[in-house]
């Protein structure tokens, strides 16, 4: 099948696999290829890409290394499985089965077969930078739990808990996430919430703000949300109940160790840009408005602003 994307470019889509079927890696590769390409085609076809050629070129840059690696690994696995002889047979039947009884080895093998260690190649021009200690650009965004949606519902007991992936899966847009949680003794950074919301407004992206539960007013939206933005706001504001949990957004992105000791200074926030395929494009520590503006500069290189 051939798709005409621009007057200069056609994309040819095929399902031919040139590697061994060992481990069923062809299906995993195909799904990840489709996931990597679909949102890029969507941005180009909808006229939202600032540089369509660079965006489409990134597909090969990001996916070819994984295809080459899979061919190498599956070829070795096939060779090991068909090699004859007493020694080879004993290694397969005894040593391998013994090693797979070790939980750490079994988990590592499972994650490799499921391709859960896949990262976006550092040569991709779609990757920004990451501040020290934060989740790295090019890594898959780990799921987080314990989020509650901020709504106009007065009975907070009716608001169910969500995981981060539940909120993000299905979007064809970039997502800008401001993690603004802080200890209960610290002063919440309401100023940064407003600056983030306003400065991200010109771009066709999904905005998400994560606050601490003790600083959240569930039955109202902040005053900086415009009336025409209230529908978007319904899926933009979330609170986190236990930021010290290893599965919280605060811990997962690397914000928890950055809180000042004895709360003697302003708490930082983390501004993270996530691609539609849930890979982190950039992660920055922000202390003030200038930091937010600088972090959002990423979108100027990759997305066109919303029409006025």
Automatic annotation (TrEMBL):
Keywords assigned: FAD, Flavoprotein, Oxidoreductase
InterPro entries cross-referenced by the UniProt entry: FAD-bd (IPR002938), FAD/NAD-bd_sf (IPR036188), RIFMO-like (IPR050641)
One of the Pfam families matching this protein, by short name: FAD_binding_3
Needed co-factor(s): FAD
Domain FAD-binding, residue spans: 14-71
Record bears the keyword Hydrolase: no
Transmembrane helix as UniProt keyword: no
One Gene Ontology MF term: oxidoreductase activity, acting on paired donors, with incorporation or reduction of molecular oxygen, NAD(P)H as one donor, and incorporation of one atom of oxygen
Name assigned to this protein: FAD-binding domain-containing protein
Organism placement in taxonomy: Eukaryota, Fungi, Fungi incertae sedis, Mucoromycota, Mucoromycotina
